[in-house]
Amino acid sequence: MDRTQGRTEQDEQSAGGSTPPAPLPAKQAAPSAPARVVRLTAGGFTLTVNPVDGSEIEPLRPGTERGRPAKRDAAARAARDAAARPPALPGPALPARPLLERGEEQERLVRLLGRGRSVRLTGPSGSGRSALLDAVAAQCAGIAPDGVVRLSGHGHQQPAELLQALYATVYEAPQERPERDELLARVREIGAVVLLDDLEMGGSALDELLRATPECAYLLATTPDTRAPSDDSHIEEVFLGGLGKADCLELLEAGVGRPLTDEETAWAGDLRFASEGLPLRFVQAAALLRQRDELNHSDADDEEEEPGVFEERPRDAAHVPLPTLAEGAAPAELLASRVSESARAALRIACALGGELPHHAHLPALVGDTHADTAVAELLACGLLTPVGTRYRLAAGVARQLEEAAYGDTAAEEARTAARHYAWWTGHASVTPERVAAEADAVLAALAGADVVAAVLLARTAAPAFAASLHWEAWERVLRSGAEAARKAGEVAEQAYFHHELGVLALCEGRLDRARAELETSIGLRGALADKRGTVAGRRALALVVDQEAAGVAASPPLRLEAPALAAGSEAVTAVTPAAAAGAKKTPAAASTAVTRPIPSTPAAAAALPAASPAAGRVGPVARVAPVVPVSSEAVTRMTPVVPVTQHSETPTTLSEVFEDAFPLTPKQPPAAAPKPAAAPAPAPGRRRLVLLAAAGALTVVALGTVVSLAMDSSDEAPPAQGPAVSSTPTVSVPTTAPGTSGNDPAPEDPESAPPTESTAPGASVAPSPGRTPGRTPSRRPSSTPTKTPPSSTVSTPPPTTGTSPSPSESAAPSPTVTTDPVTATATSPVTTP
Description:
Blueprint: H1 9-16, E1 38-42, E2 45-49, E3 56-59, E4 70-71, H2 74-83, H3 103-114, E5 119-122, H4 129-139, E6 148-152, H5 159-170, E7 171-172, E8 176-177, H6 180-187, E9 193-197, H7 204-212, E10 217-222, E11 236-239, H8 245-256, H9 262-275, H10 279-296, H11 300-304, H12 325-329, H13 332-337, H14 341-352, E12 356-357, H15 363-367, H16 375-381, E13 385-388, E14 391-394, H17 398-404, H18 411-426, H19 433-438, H20 440-449, H21 452-468, H22 472-489, H23 492-508, H24 512-528, H25 532-555, E15 571-576, E16 594-599, H26 603-608, E17 637-639, H27 655-662, H28 685-712
Helix pairs in contact: 3-4, 5-6, 5-7, 8-9, 8-10, 14-16, 14-18, 18-20, 18-21, 20-21, 20-22, 21-22, 22-23, 23-24, 23-25, 24-25
C-alpha cells in the first residue's frame, strides 16, 4: 500500500537526503511520460481516447477493417466467468451456506433451460436468488454450445449495454465496440445459457433483449416489483418463497455453529413468522447469536482463561439476553453496534454512496486504517452485505435501517472524501481502464454526492477510463454529470471538454442530431477561450457529422405517393390528362393539361353538377370512375372542395363571364333526374348583354331599397358617446320613388327645419345598422336623440320585396361609397329597369 501513492524508492531516498538519487533507466521514465492514449474501433470509426485534449474520431481507414471475431473456448470462458465473480477477501475463507428447500425449484429450472425455454425467477430481496443461480449454473455448464454466461442487470434499464456485455463475454474482440447492426448480427449467433441476476427492466425492453438473442435461454432473477414481461414473450414464471420452519432452524444452527437451546428455538419460530422465512433474516439472526455468545463468554476456550488480563473487559460480564423480535426483524443497527470501528466506518461510506461499497483495496485509504480491508469479510459474515456482480453492496433494507440510526449524518463529507480519492486513483497511470470499469457504480455514486469542484475533477479523470474500457453507459453518465458540475463551478474549459466528448459519443452511436448540438456547443466555448487545438478537433468531428448526414440522405429511398382511395361523397381530383393520340395534330393547349374536375360518388350528385358548354372550355359532369392511375408515375393530389369548383378552365376575362358564373341561365337539374343532362348551347352575345343589364339593374334596386329602408328606420336607443349633432325637431326628407312602387304614401308634413339632403351616387350601397329591420314602419313621433350614421361599406343584401313604399326618414342619409368592379376596374352605373 506504500507504493500506491505514486512514489518510488528513489523518491523516498531523495526525500531523506542521506543517499543521492540514482539515475532512472530509460524504460522507467513513466511518471514524466504523457497520459495514456487508447485507440478503439467503434463501428466505422477509429476513436482515439486522449485524456488531455479530448477524444479524436476519424473514419476507419481502408484495409484496417477487422475480420469476423472468434468465439472464446471453454478455458477462456472459465477465466472470464471467474473474473466476473466478486473478488476474494483477505482473511480466512467464509463457510459456505447450505442451499435448503430449493431442490424442486432447481430441478425445474434446469429442465426448462435444457429445453431452451427462458425462465423468470421472481422472489423478494433476501430470498436466496443468487445462491440458486450459482447452483443452476453448475448443472447447466454443458447444455449450450457457448456455455453459461453470467451477467448483472443492476442499474440497466435498456438492453443495449447488456447486449454489449454479452458480446464481449462470448467473442474475443478486445478494444472493439461494434455498431448496432453488426452487434445484432453477432449476438444472434450466440447459443448460451444466460443467467441475468438483479434484473430491473421488463416489458418492451425485455422483449427487445429476447428477440435479439433467439438462440439463448435466459434465467432472469428479479424482484416482484419489477415490471412484468409482455404476454407475447412466452417466459415461464417460477416464484421463490420463504423457507419452512425446519429449514430455518437448520440454517440458524449452521450459522451459529452449535445446537440451539429451547429459548432460541422458540425465538427462531417467532422470527420465521415475522420475516416470512427469508434466508437473509436467519443469516443475520445467526450473526446476532454469535455476537451474543462472544459477549456472554459462553465458549469453552474462554472459560479456561482469566478474564481481564489481556482484554479490556470486566471480570464479571453482564448477561446479554436474546434480541427482541423487532431487533431480529430489523437487525442492522444492533449488528453494526457490535462490529469493529473500521467496519462501522465502511458502513458510513456505503450509506454515503447510496449502498455501494468500494473495493476492499480502497478502504484503508478511505477509512485511515491499514487493516480496514478485513471489514468487508466481517460485514459479509453478518449478512449486512450481499454480492452484486463483481462488487458488494448493502443488503436489502440495511441502508434504511442505518440511516435511521444516524449513519447517514456525515454523508456529504464521506462522499467528498470518496470523490477526491477516486479522482486520484482513476487518473493514476498504473490503473487499467478495466479496473475503473469494475468500480463504476461506486465512482458514479461518489460523483453524485460530491461538491462541484470535486465532481469536475473526478469526471475529468474517470471519463477517459470509462471510454477506454468500453463501458459507455457509465461514460455518458460521467460526462453529463461533469458538464453540469463544470457549468455550476464556472469552468468553461472543462465544460467545453465534456460537450466535445458527448458529441463524439453520440457520433459513435449514430445519434447525429445530438452529436451536432454537442459539438457546436463545444466549438463555441472553445472559440471563446481561443483554444485553437480544441476548436480544430471539434470542427473535424463536426465535418464527420455532416458527411454522415449527407450519406444518410443519399441512401434514403425516395418518397413514393400512391393513388388515394375514393371516399364517400364528392371529391375533387387533379388528374393528368395524357397527350393527344398519335396522328392527331397537337397544339400547345392540348398537350398534357391538368384539369380540376369533381368526381361524384352517386348518380344524384352527378346530376346536381351544372352542365357547361365545350366551346367555353369547361368540363361537364362525369360519372363515378375508378381510382385514377397516375400517368408517367406522377402523384395524384386529392382535394376536398370547400366552395363550388369553378368550371372554367381559364380565368374569366369579361364581366359577362363573371356574372354568368354567379347567375347561370340554365338552372341545376333536380336530384331525382337519373340521366345526365345534356350540355346547353352557348347563349347568344346579344342575350348576354341583356342579362348583364338586368343583373346590374337588380343590384341597383337592391341598393336603393336598402337606403330607403334605413332612412325610414328609427330607434329609441341611447345616443353614442361621440356622434354628429343633429336638430331635435322632427324632419321630413323628400321621398325617393323607385319604379314599381304602389304610390299610397301619406302626405308629408311641413318640417320646421330639415338637414341638407345628400345625393346618392350611382352604385352606392349602405350596410344596414345592426339590430334594425329594413321593412319596419317608422314612428310618427319626433326623435330627440341624434341618429347613428352607419359606416360606408359594400355588402350584399337580399333581393328587394315588391311593393315597397317609401316613408319619411328621420335620420340623415350616410355618405355613399362607389362600388368598383374588380374585373373591369370601372364604376358601375345605375340602370333603371322599366
